[in-house]
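Fold this complex.
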Amino acid sequence: MELPERKKRILKAIVESYINTAEPVGSKTLVNSFDTPISSATIRNEMSELEELGYLEKPHVSAGRIPSYAAYRLYVNELMERHRVAGDELEAMRLMMQAKMREMDNIMVSASKVLGEMTQHTTVSMISHTGGRRVKKCELIDVDGGFTYAVVLVTDSEVKNKMLRLSQPVEPATAAVLSTAINLALSERRLEYLLPSVQQSMGGSSAVYQMTSDILDFIRATEAGGKPEVYIDGAARLLDNREYQDTQRARELLEYFSDRSRVSELLVGEDGPNLVNVRIGPELQDPSMRDASLVFTSYQIDQNTRGIVGIIAPARMDYADVYAKLIAFTQAISGVTGQGMKRLKDAGESDERRD
Amino acid sequence: MELPERKKRILKAIVESYINTAEPVGSKTLVNSFDTPISSATIRNEMSELEELGYLEKPHVSAGRIPSYAAYRLYVNELMERHRVAGDELEAMRLMMQAKMREMDNIMVSASKVLGEMTQHTTVSMISHTGGRRVKKCELIDVDGGFTYAVVLVTDSEVKNKMLRLSQPVEPATAAVLSTAINLALSERRLEYLLPSVQQSMGGSSAVYQMTSDILDFIRATEAGGKPEVYIDGAARLLDNREYQDTQRARELLEYFSDRSRVSELLVGEDGPNLVNVRIGPELQDPSMRDASLVFTSYQIDQNTRGIVGIIAPARMDYADVYAKLIAFTQAISGVTGQGMKRLKDAGESDERRD
DNA sequence: CTTAGCACTCGGGAATATGGAGTGCTAAAA
DNA sequence: TTTTAGCACTCCATATTCCCGAGTGCTAAG
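Structure:
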């Protein structure tokens, strides 16, 4: 059941006023918000109906109304005006991204910082590996003292490494042979035969066997995905928001942020590629985030890697602004990822997105 | 000029009371703190003198006294009782460290988390490379698409890596030759001849020349030190402290923490090896930290690498407790760094430390 | 030098007004 | 039927006042 036009207009005005002021909105303050003159009494009637419909709440009887989560949802879906950021601002973003990329060498961090700078909110970044990762190559480098360093190349542009500590040293020559064997096994994707064959040919040297086993574990762990990499920037900005003046709530959220794996769970389940996703308060299913919203989108890094970047702020956030800035962000970032974006560009990049 | 015994006892009692309660301490509450009976009037006289000496302050006339920074300094230097944590607690710490190390694979993070768990404060970790880093080995790994991945081994146990992006692909065979040449140059420490010699022998292939130059830059940058790695854990715990109930102050500190390089500056200038360093409020020279203290120490990771780990909390923190726990921490960590601590142990580890 | 006694200060919590923003309802107007 | 003016009512927020009590400094006696 569609909401009548005037109710929508009133609800929109309430949401926007509340976003700006964080104060409950009364009927009188809304009178001036419309071109067609309308009395406060009429607005009151409408507001009372909107409350029955579940879009408004009152903190107490004489305090005006505040939007419910359902209202934010409706606002995001239907009411808000989707504007674009001005061209020069977009250009500024692009330059900033370029600068940060040079400085940081980590796209996750750069993305968070740029977006945080633009929106003045807490931002979260994640790298997501789609289509399963495949280890393509494994190099063993021996270090003094019997340690071996294993470097593993995953699909295109990602590298993982790990220091393997052995109880006994392994000869460099042996390591070289082992390395060849591993890479052969990798290219043929027959890892399961590696361990028995090593045991056979190496004459049961326990150190080599152990090392091979460790390396295989590492490869398997890498292919399985491992922990998601999550980066959060500007957490302190939470405290700028009126809703987190209460230190207890702020603490709960900050505490929550320190558990990266839980945060990463918020970011799963995108609505679709190239969309801006909005998750409002209770929709996040997480008690710590009950009064906060998360707005995020993703961008391609290379064929198998996507970056996810988003904003965490109180449910009373300027969705229209954040929305526009996220779209601008993905446009800006496609200009600077350079080589990594090669394929995407060849395929014809698209700035257009819908929700 | 040494403080008379009784003044010391009173000051100690005041500091400890204030540490516990965060409330200004009055003369009457102190009466029961001494075995030799002493009247509140006498204490008042003493307190008033301690105030003149700069050890106490009054928030207002009828509110008791609070310790000044000088008082904390005196407390740490002379007054506080240095106890050790119980053996079983030490053992618990060791186990926890072991578990975290397995889970984390990053000693900095593990150290911070364990210490944070023990003290319930915000902790900071840093890795410090003493005696200059030396690149010992450099491996080149080619990746599809003409990129080359450079892995650089620094001194003993540290590894740096970087993806070098070339405009033109380099043949794997060529890369192998180059790799050998680089490692030879590294072992002879004659990097400066590498570039000309490559140009000569490789017949001026611009791709190879470019790559060599990039690699040399990378090696030099690595040896120069690069950015310090700083990790902060449990920042949210700041908000548990009464002094940071004021969101503005809390925000300032949290903001400050996000600039890792500034935080790292707090940790330079140790009093000496194997000492617990205490920096109180204004001593930190940083306006953001004006009412906080930093207590830190360092532990050996390998011959050229030291970890620094510390606690950031309000100046009104339990120095004796934190002090003991830091000492316990270094004892505990020496039990789990394992191979990396080999040399240290051979040299005979020492638990004893003075200040 | 210590201590009891006492006047004095002052913050902060409780109790108490009071203003005003906002609502819901009713009845008249459109 | 919808809109609007009017009005009684609610209740939060703020200011004001009051007063208790913890604490001090000073003085004078022990």
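Chain B touches chain A at residues 105, 136-137, 139, 141, 143-145, 147, 149, 151, 153, 156-157, 159, 161, 163, 165, 233-236, 239-240, 244-245, 247, 250-251, 254-255, 257-258, 338-339, 342 (CB under 8 Å).
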